[in-house]
């Protein structure tokens, strides 16, 4: 894991989108041309598109705004009483969720946030890999300590999915929905996801790490095994600032956590019904080896999905939902 460094400074110089020779970059950074070349190679390996043209030098495919913790905190988090203990910006890390999970301590009470430009082992739900190219998405994890027991917190991941949606909508109006339990969707394509991990006593105080991944501007040719979309394809050049989006996400998620902790999940049910991507549609729920076909009928008071089959509505707390194409 590395903090801001050579890559950061190099990208700052390249961020104006123009060509810069290796010699010029080396001079500015106080390193050799070979060191510049090495850094470029590594960034390319981490998924950045950087053109290298003999005689002209290097340039970025798109200008890039790197994450900066002071910007996020002082410019983009309006509510100063957040009580955030720490906001750490890392350049590269295996996974921001694992980073926090490995460090959780009994003494941690206040919320903490970690964001990274790159994850080498980004994790999705159900053991899947989360594609995490350099500066192409937001990779954010938050630690939050709840006073309630885990048993009371069934709706956490749904409430957080809604909070993420709200944060994005506050910066760019578009048609975003949530697919149970917590996928962010745009017209049937996945824009982002949420990974909630809990530790602690299920019946009393509970500590949570929530990870959020939002596709921002993914490199051309990115290969993901399901239909997906990124913010840049939705709004073109009107992309919100990455620092601003990160600040809005942190604030909105912390808000949702405190509402959840104080008032429970019921507060979110109506909002869910307005944003539900599959309600009243034919769905399949894959539950282990079992498949339940029916009509989605929203969620219940614990955040479980309700599915009607053979005229009976039943609730399910886990499983993978997919839309059924009408035969
Ligand atoms: C999903 O499968 O939909 C959940 C994806 C969650 C990805 C985020 S990126 C930041 C955090 N760190 C991880 O390793 N995963 C989550």
TrEMBL record:
Q: Does the keyword Ligase apply?
A: yes
BPL/LPL catalytic domain ranges (all copies): 81-261
What are the DNA-binding region positions?
22-41
Output the Gene Ontology terms for molecular function: ATP binding; biotin--[biotin carboxyl-carrier protein] ligase activity; DNA binding
- GO terms of biological process kind: regulation of DNA-templated transcription
- Which family is it part of? Belongs to the biotin--protein ligase family.
Q: What is this protein called?
A: Bifunctional ligase/repressor BirA
